[in-house]
């Protein structure tokens, strides 16, 4: 098993224990970028592409929710977005993100518990690699919606398993039924980490919704 797969195994074995998960990510932080890009990281690029298509004003305020070391934020910064904030529960990951000097502010917070930030504060909220087993509950979608402005855009990656087995599919349907958001687009299904021995089979889509 490759080193990256050993780290991913530790992450999933944390089984949603936030303290243990934070400790794992803190320890992994220095090598995280190298490992993640080595096994393919397409959801970050696809999410950035959707931001570019749906958020045309580069002065828009964007929150990277679950930013980790800032991979998505770094891409958005490189293509001209400057009003970027980051949110993540791991102080070690946030320390690496700060060094990249791409975020105005970073917040050590988790999704799913009513993240303590001003409501309706962002033109877009983007979350990749977060809505998955052991990381965030379905209530994380409520947080994303609460933080984005009315008519703002929420973009997130979601695995097939999380949608079908962890309640995210039902939650998405409820939000549509209750007219809290409307679908804008979704990507084709793709492998989350195509070069990983253990994760290549995991299929994702990236979704975009507008807050009603």
Question: What's the short story on this structure?
Answer:
Helix 5 (91-99) links the parallel strand 2 (84-88) and strand 3. With 212 residues, the chain is of the alpha/beta class. The protein has 8 helices and 8 strands.
End-to-end span in angstroms? 46 Å
Please, how many helices? 8
Structural class: alpha/beta
Bin the strand percentage. 15-25%
User: What is the chain-wise order of helices and strands?
Assistant: HHHEHEHEEHEHHEEE
The stretches of 5 or more residues where confidence is low (pLDDT under 50) are: none
Question: If you compute it from the alpha carbons, what radius of gyration comes out, rounded to the nearest whole angstrom?
Answer: 16 Å
Q: What is the general shape?
A: globular
What's the count of strands? 8
Describe the structure.
By secondary structure, this protein is an alpha/beta fold. The chain contains 8 helices and 8 strands; from the N terminus they run αααβαβαββαβααβββ. Strands 1, 2, 3, 4, 5, 6, 7 and 8 form an 8-stranded mixed sheet that branches. The chain is globular and about 45 Å long.
